[in-house]
Design brief:
Blueprint: H1 26-40, H2 48-59, E1 67-71, E2 75-81, E3 90-95, E4 98-112, E5 117-131, E6 142-146, E7 149-155, H3 158-161
Antiparallel strand pairs: 1-2, 2-7, 3-4, 4-5, 6-7
Length: 172
């Protein structure tokens, strides 16, 4: 028969020192409320970096690949690591004013030996969508794929490449 050991138990309060109770879903609710607030205020008109951050935050917990987004004087560049995929399994399209990147991986292995048989299947797909900022020349977008890395170049229009003009402020 097992022996029972009694240890002293001390109870501590789970209320933080500030007096507030812990609300685990409040942060999630605040983020969702912010997304809806941003949508109502025309979030699609904000700079490209804000949209990229929002898109990254929305897809962070899914099986979508991580991407790098960079901006130069002449273009935006999206780079995605897609290991195990071939260019024939990747689809890049302009859809509804944005860029959609889709991919699908199918892998099947089968091994037969005298005393055993193993068959494995792995399937997976993803889709990422990026709203295009103003000033992208949609007719000249290029996508290349090499060594598991997809690179999409979104060239800027001539107007978008012009440097910002500084306007002097004069006292009235």
């Amino acid at each position: 028969m097992a022996t029972e050991t009694k240890l002293p138990v001390t109870k501590t309060s789970t209320v933080p020192a500030t007096g507030e109770t812990w609300q685990p879903f409040q942060a999630l609710r605040n983020e969702i409320d912010q997304i809806f607030d941003d949508f109502g205020n025309g979030f699609w008109k904000r700079p490209f970096r804000s949209l990229a951050r929002l898109e990254r935050d929305l897809s962070r917990n899914f099986n979508a690949p991580a991407v790098d987004i960079a901006e130069s004087e002449k273009a935006y560049e999206i780079t995605a690591e897609l290991p195990g995929l071939d260019e024939k399994n990747i689809d890049v399209k302009l859809v509804n004013g944005g860029l959609a990147i889709r991919g699908e991986k199918k892998e099947e292995t089968e091994e037969k030996k005298k005393d055993y048989y193993v068959s494995e299947r792995r399937y997976g797909s993803f889709e990422r969508y990026f709203a295009l900022p103003d000033g992208v020349n949609a007719d000249k977008i290029e996508a290349t794929f090499k060594n598991g890395v997809l690179k999409v170049v979104l060239p800027k229009t001539e107007e978008a490449q012009k440097p910002a003009k500084t306007i002097d402020v004069k006292a009235a």
